[in-house]
Design brief:
- By secondary structure, the chain is an alpha+beta fold.
- It folds into 3 domains: about 100 residues, PAS domain (Beta-Lactamase), CATH 3.30.450.20; about 170 residues, Beta-Lactamase, CATH 3.30.450; about 170 residues, Hypothetical protein af1432 (Orthogonal Bundle).
- The strands form 2 sheets. A 6-stranded antiparallel β-sheet has the order 8-7-6-11-10-9, with helices on both faces. A 5-stranded antiparallel β-sheet has the order 2-1-5-4-3.
- The longest helix is centred in the middle third of the chain and has 52 residues.
- The protein starts with 15 loop residues before the first strand and ends with a helix.
Length: about 475
């Protein structure tokens, strides 16, 4: 087919140029456009696009071409084109109506798009590593940390599934700890002998394994039946090592054949290193939690031991400390106190008389009334409590009760003469409970008061000795229990 002379100027352009007639046939194609279509101008001219490229009718390119031919509307867009062999290319397309039909200018931007995709893939992988870093730092729960790592692995590597097997040296096995992307629950039951089979030897030898097609691998994996049920074709495993010791295996799976690039493999190793850090961090966190728990229990036992020693020393108040502690905690909960604060209230109640360790036995255990001078010494016990407990940072939050439980609402208490809400809440709670228990218990110098007498006394001291609101809540609870 003879070409119009004006098209000759287009023959040597690097950009693709083509003219499509109203009959949807190629009227002109330069060499660059033919190369874009993996053809030659002679093979294209006179042919319909729909005959040459099956399925093109469903593309944006063809839709806009129809619009350009029928409605005479121009268009400019980026187009991704897939060749019959599966290869992909990208073009910038500029389409304009002309008297003969439609003129299409195409510029091959495949290299640019691949560079952009490569850059985006690199950014995505860096973001994945950063997200894994944050997950490792943010949580101490090993399973949830590893699950977060694996979700990033599957997304970033474009694979179907991944798991982590932990090495249990006491059992000589690799055991499933976390995974994602599996169809069956059987993955969670994975136990592999360390040093045996494909996975076990990979962990033992500390050498990564990548199998692009499991069906062609000379040695079937020990979990071959499960792999087949899951439909896995591709398999890769990275040994996990920390401080020179094996700690597990990182596995990825894909349900179609995969030929990984060097960048992909490098990223796989980076993810394996991150998984090793996550496991090591999780174990350190767990061990630290165990140590902290042991220390906390030791502290609690020490506090209870001090409390018991005080009760033994002051035989008149035997059992008093445990009773007032339980009742103070109950009252604090009735008032909506946070559990963290209740922990400090409990310790403060147990240690409320710790300052009496500094009071001489001649005063503390004196059977009769104390003289004025002896009372001066006795009233030093809150100050002694402060001096004893304040240097212990762990016990500092519980100081309000040992130091201030003898303060009074009207400001007539000691050691500081605080009044109203200047008195810490914990001390105001404890003051009511302390007096209640003292009056309700037998003492060598007097019998226990009746319940009515105690009720009346507590009520009468509201606004004088005690916080009126606390008295109201306390007496309501006591009366409900005695009803």
């Amino acid at each position: 087919m003879d070409q119009p002379a004006e098209y000759a100027i287009l023959d040597h352009l690097r950009e693709g140029c083509q003219v499509i007639g109203f009959d949807r046939r190629y009227r002109y194609v330069n060499a660059a456009a033919a190369r874009h279509g993996r053809s030659t101008p002679i093979e294209l001219i006179g042919q319909k696009m729909t005959d040459l490229y099956p399925g093109v009718e469903a593309t944006t390119l063809y839709t806009l071409l129809e619009r350009c031919l029928d409605q005479r509307l121009p268009a400019e867009f980026e187009n991704e084109f897939t060749y019959p062999n599966g290869a992909r290319a990208w073009f910038t397309i500029k389409m304009d109506p002309i008297p003969e039909g439609a003129f299409i200018l195409s510029i091959d931007i495949t290299d640019r798009k691949r560079a952009e995709d490569s850059l985006q893939e690199h950014v995505t992988r860096l973001e994945a590593l950063r997200a894994i870093d944050l997950a490792i730092v943010a949580t101490g729960d090993l399973t949830s940390t590893l699950e977060g790592v694996l979700e990033r692995v599957v997304t970033s590597l474009h694979v179907d599934a991944a798991d982590l097997l932990l090495y249990r040296p006491e059992r000589g096995t690799l055991e499933y700890v976390a995974g994602c992307g599996f169809r069956q629950a059987e993955a969670g039951q994975t136990v592999v002998p360390f040093g045996q089979g494909l996975a076990g030897r990979t962990a033992f030898d500390r050498r990564a394994v990548i199998i692009e097609d499991l069906a062609r691998h000379p040695e079937p994996p020990e979990r071959g039946a499960w792999f087949a049920d899951e439909g896995f074709v591709f398999y890769a495993a990275i040994p996990l090592v920390t401080k020179g010791n094996p700690i597990g295996l990182f596995e990825v799976f894909h349900r179609t054949a995969l030929t990984p690039s060097p960048d992909w493999i490098e990223f796989l190793h980076a993810l394996g290193a991150q998984a090793s850090i996550a496991i090591d961090h999780g174990r350190l966190y767990r061990d630290l939690q165990r140590v902290n728990l042991d220390l906390t229990l030791a502290y609690e036992r020490t506090i209870e031991g001090w409390s018991y020693a005080l009760d033994l020393r002051d035989r008149e108040t035997k059992g008093h400390t445990l009773r007032v502690t339980a009742l103070t905690v109950r009252l604090a909960r009735l008032l909506g106190t946070a559990e963290d604060e209740i922990t400090h209230i409990r310790r403060g109640a147990l240690l409320h008389d710790i300052g009496k360790m500094g009071i001489p036995d001649t005063i503390l255990l004196k059977p009769g009334p104390l003289t004025d001078d002896e009372w001066k010494v006795m009233r030093m016990h809150p100050t002694y409590a402060r001096d004893l407990l304040y240097p212990i940072e762990y016990l500092r939050p519980c100081l309000p009760i040992p130091y201030a439980h003898h303060e009074k609402w009207d400001g007539s208490g000691y050691p500081l003469g605080l009044k109203d809400e200047q008195i810490p809440l914990a001390a105001r709670l404890f003051a009511v409970v302390d007096v209640w228990d003292a009056l309700s218990s037998n003492r060598p110098y007097r019998p226990a008061w009746t319940q009515t007498e105690v009720f009346d006394h507590i009520q009468g001291q509201a606004g004088i000795h005690f916080d009126p609101q606390i008295v109201e809540v306390f007496l309501r609870e006591r009366r409900a229990r005695s009803a």
